[in-house]
Design a protein that fits this description.
Helix content: 40-55%
Number of domains: 1
Structural class: alpha/beta
Order of helices and strands: EHHHHHHEHEEEHEHEEE
Shape: globular
CATH superfamily: HAD superfamily/HAD-like
Number of strands: 9
CATH class: Alpha Beta
CATH topology: Rossmann fold
Distance between the termini: 33 Å
Radius of gyration: 17 Å
Strand content: 15-25%
Strand order of the largest sheet: 3-2-1-6-7-8-9
Length: 210
């Protein structure tokens, strides 16, 4: 049996689903506040000065602090059912089906949220490692349970799986956060290209620029 490790945003999907979900659940007051409290961080992220984890932590605190956990869970279910279906890369979904047809274990490993990734992965029969929203007395705290895990993908994979038990490991990603995960694999796919050391060989599918 092989193990397939698959990033979600910009790998399985064609867009950033995390930002889309935040916009779908943010209140008008939060959106107005974000123009001042988050916009500089977004510009810093795009310039390569702010890490993705730092930006995620900030916007998660802004949008989710004090929110009703059941309401956000319901919003995640709706988002997984309606929006995500229109954001998937057909070629990557075919690749996932190929792995499942071989009997491989397929794990989505993402810095995005459990609110919508859990129902989506459950629907597709996939395992999941991702950021989980912390809940206290039915309300979201605005923090991640165990902190942001986006930069710790390889650590979390090793903690959950005995990698020596798999014949081969396949990993698919698109960003710097995925590099430690890719380093665990025998077959490494970065933005649709199979990478062996410094050499790039087989193309999995077209990969539009971000």
């Amino acid at each position: 049996m092989d193990l397939a490790l698959v990033d979600f945003d910009h790998t399985i999907t064609i867009t950033d689903t995390y930002a889309g979900f935040l916009r779908s659940v943010a209140t008008p007051q939060q959106i107005a506040s974000a123009k001042w409290s988050v916009a500089p961080w977004v510009l810093g992220y795009r310039a390569g000065l702010v890490p993705a984890a730092a930006l995620r932590t900030r916007v998660t605190r802004l949008v989710f602090t004090g929110r009703d956990a059941a309401q956000i869970e319901a919003a995640g279910e709706r988002y997984a059912t309606t929006v995500l279906a229109e954001r998937l890369r057909p070629q990557m979904m075919a690749r996932i089906d190929w792995h499942r047809g071989r009997g491989d274990r397929v794990v989505v490993v993402s810095g995005s949220l459990d609110a919508y990734l859990r129902p989506w992965c459950s629907r597709h029969g996939l395992e999941l490692i991702c950021n989980r929203l912390e809940v206290a007395d039915g309300r979201l705290t605005g923090r991640y349970l165990d902190g942001d895990r986006g930069a710790h993908k390889a650590v979390d994979i090793r903690a959950r799986y005995d990698l020596s038990r798999f014949a081969r490991i396949h990993a698919y990603g698109d960003s710097s956060e995925d590099r430690p995960m890719l380093s665990l694999a025998h077959e490494r796919w970065h933005r649709g290209l199979c990478v062996h050391g410094q050499a790039v060989s087989q193309r999995l599918h077209p990969w539009p620029g971000r």
